[in-house]
Design goal:
The complex is a heterodimer of chains A (318) and B (291).
Chain A lengths: L2 H8 L6 H15 L4 H23 L8 H18 L3 H20 L7 H21 L1 H4 L24 H22 L2 H11 L1 H6 L4 H27 L9 H14 L4 H21 L4 H15 L14
Helix pairs in contact in A: 2-8, 3-8, 3-11, 3-12, 3-13, 4-5, 4-6, 4-11, 5-11, 8-11, 9-11, 12-13, 13-14
Chain B lengths: L1 H27 L7 H19 L3 H24 L7 H23 L15 E4 L6 E4 H23 L1 H11 L1 H6 L4 H27 L5 H16 L5 H20 L6 H13 L13
Antiparallel strand pairs in B: 1-2
Helix pairs in contact in B: 1-5, 1-8, 1-9, 1-10, 2-3, 2-8, 2-9, 3-8, 5-6, 6-8, 9-10
Classes of the chains: A mainly alpha (318), B mainly alpha (291).
């Protein structure tokens, strides 16, 4: 094996701390049942962040409208449960498929133009879906959303409960599976071509990488994962409302990904944990004005840079 | 029908004044500034608060709104924005979203979250009707006032950019910062004054638009999308592009809300995506021009 092969394969190897991290994630709600609801929420947004990382961190596409796929997944899961079948597994698969189809269609809008154009079209897609969900009230319940959904038990055994004990393990399991699929993909030669596209699209094209096909496929895949996150959100909370499409969802997502680090799948997971804990702390101190501190945090983060954020003594050096 | 056209033009003109500062920062300085709406909100609140609490007449409030937003813009440009010019777009997006979140919460804290009502002077409240039947043209005096002011500002802007020494310095600084600096142009001062002027225009737009668009703390988030559409659709290489885009958007929005109210803002978003797919650099960009 050559050195190049070795160095490429090194990133794909499972590190010693990875199984520990996942064991810890499953152990926390088991040992402290009162944390089940928040761990469930973290697992869902972590999955959502992993999806954005595929697009932003690996393919370099700046998206302000990733909530489009999350929301479509959430509504698909809700409608599927209400009208067709309350089985959560089937709902999850259908939601992922629906989001993947939307992702495939939307991916053609991100191939051309500049960062600004992409920001606008991704944002536009999410806004269109928000308007649709708002106006098609015979289907989506309009501003009331779809409520009172009852899903059948997971694996036919574990019914969803109010304390979120089933929900948290269900979400963690889905996160685990999809995370390792994503991990396998970004560490493959395919993933290497994505990074090449991110770093220099023109050069990537020149060495024969089919840039457009790669972007379309990764965007579709990311959309499916975001749809899974949305479906989990609906299935574990029992409702779906317009909130899933809102702009702040996309913006918060981007924030947590940047906090944790882009181009590193665990970055999304770390960011989701940090963000959720920060949100809980801040909103318990100032329920109405916590967005101010969120904004301040963002501004400071960008101005001093992520690597220096936790070393305040270096902030004033150039 | 003419009335709708007229209202659409007034709305479009207003959007143009609100967004033109953004076209400059985004197009000329290549900075994605999502916080532009916050400056507009500052202008709006300066006007409303001065009129309500200090009884300052409306016409005097407009220049004050301009000055206040411009001053704020200058201070922020000098302290926060300048280090970010060379950073990647992602950082700029995050930074300016952060500013938006802060401004929304801060205004909520100091003024309250209720919608502010602007009391127009008597002479702006009326309405004149011309013609009859299907071709009636009903002109609200305030809309007419907006059109006149915005048209005058557009002419002034075009003149500044294309005919004055400052305009040529700005265009030179944008095309090549290093060479411009070498020619003895103080690039920092040029950018600072441009940014301040753009923010001031946003403030003025916010003051003028408080009555038409409504003013509450969520203003920057609600209208950010409209400003961005104007700039993205119009292209950023000239100010005629954003002007035409703003007029198009204003008329489409007003007409859409009048004829098919069920669709809401849907039309505008679809229109934007279609245009951007067709011309990703904006509608009115010359091929081969600077991207």
């Amino acid at each position: 094996m050559t050195d190049a092969q070795k160095s490429l394969l090194a990133t794909a190897k499972v590190k010693w701390w990875e199984p520990l991290l996942w064991l810890a994630a499953f152990a926390v709600p088991l040992l402290v049942p009162s944390t089940a609801l928040i761990v469930n929420e973290i697992a869902i947004i972590a999955l959502f962040a992993v999806s954005l990382d595929l697009v932003l961190g690996y393919a370099g596409i700046v998206s302000l409208g990733h909530a489009a796929f999350f929301g479509l997944g959430a509504y698909t899961a809700a409608l599927f449960c209400k009208h067709i079948n309350p089985d959560p597994h089937l709902g999850l698969v259908v939601a992922m498929a629906a989001s993947a189809v939307l992702g495939l269609a939307a991916s053609f809008t991100i191939l051309r133009g500049t960062d600004l154009t992409r920001l606008m079209v991704t944002l536009g897609v999410a806004l269109i879906l928000l308007e649709l969900a708002n106006k098609l009230d015979w289907l989506t319940g309009g501003t009331d959303g779809i409520q009172g959904l009852v899903f059948s038990p997971v694996l036919g055994q574990f019914a969803f409960d109010l304390a979120g004990r089933t929900a948290v393990f269900y979400s963690l399991a889905v996160l685990l599976v999809l995370f390792f699929i994503a991990r396998r993909i970004v560490n493959s030669p395919y993933g290497a071509t994505l990074k090449a596209i991110r770093d220099n699209r023109l050069r990537a094209m020149a060495i024969g990488i089919p840039v457009h096909a790669r972007l379309v496929s990764v965007y579709t895949l990311a959309a499916a994962i975001a749809g899974a996150a949305g479906a989990l959100f609906t299935q574990t909370s029992g409702f779906s409302s317009l909130d899933v499409f809102e702009f702040h969802r996309s913006a918060d997502l981007m924030l947590m990904l940047v906090v944790g680090g882009t181009g590193w799948l665990y970055g999304g997971v770390v960011g989701a944990v940090v963000f959720k804990i920060m949100q809980d702390l801040l909103s318990s101190i100032t329920p109405q004005y916590w967005t101010f501190w969120l904004g301040l945090f963002l501004v400071v983060l960008v101005l001093v840079g992520r690597d220096r954020l936790f070393k305040p003594w270096t902030w004033w050096k150039r | 029908m003419l009335t709708i056209l007229f209202d659409g033009i007034a709305y479009g003109m207003l959007l143009f004044i609100l967004a033109v500062g953004l076209a400059v920062t985004m197009g000329l300085m290549n900075f994605i500034n999502l916080a532009h709406g916050a400056f507009a909100m500052v202008g709006g609140y300066i006007t409303v608060l001065l009129m309500q609490r200090a009884g300052v007449p409306f016409l005097l409030c407009l220049p004050l709104a301009f000055a206040g937003a411009a001053l704020l813009g200058a201070v922020l440009e000098r302290t926060l924005y300048r280090p970010l010019y060379s950073k990647p777009h992602l950082d700029q997006v995050l930074f300016s979203i952060g500013l938006v979140f802060m401004s929304v919460a801060a205004v909520d804290y100091f003024v309250g979250s209720t919608q502010q009502i602007l009391h127009l002077p008597e002479w702006l409240k009326g309405r004149t009707e011309l013609g009859s039947g299907a071709w009636t043209l009903g002109m609200g005096h305030y809309r007419l006032f907006i059109i006149v002011i915005c048209a005058a500002l557009t002419v002034l802007l075009q003149w500044i950019l294309s005919r004055t020494r400052f305009g040529s310095r700005l265009r030179a600084s944008v095309d090549d910062q290093r060479v411009a600096a070498g020619m003895g142009i103080n690039v920092n001062v040029v950018f600072l004054s441009t940014f301040a002027f753009g923010s001031g225009l946003a403030g003025l737009g916010g003051a003028l638009g408080a009555e038409v668009l409504g003013l509450d703390p969520s203003f920057p988030l609600k209208f950010m999308i409209y400003f961005l559409i104007v700039v993205a659709v119009g292209g950023t290489s000239s100010i005629t592009g954003p002007l035409l885009a703003a007029l198009l958007l204003g008329i489409a929005d007003v007409a859409g809300k009048y004829y098919i109210p069920k669709m809401g803002a849907f039309i505008v978003y679809v229109l934007m995506i279609v245009i951007l797919l067709w011309r990703p650099q904006g509608l009115f960009v010359r091929q081969g021009g600077k991207a």
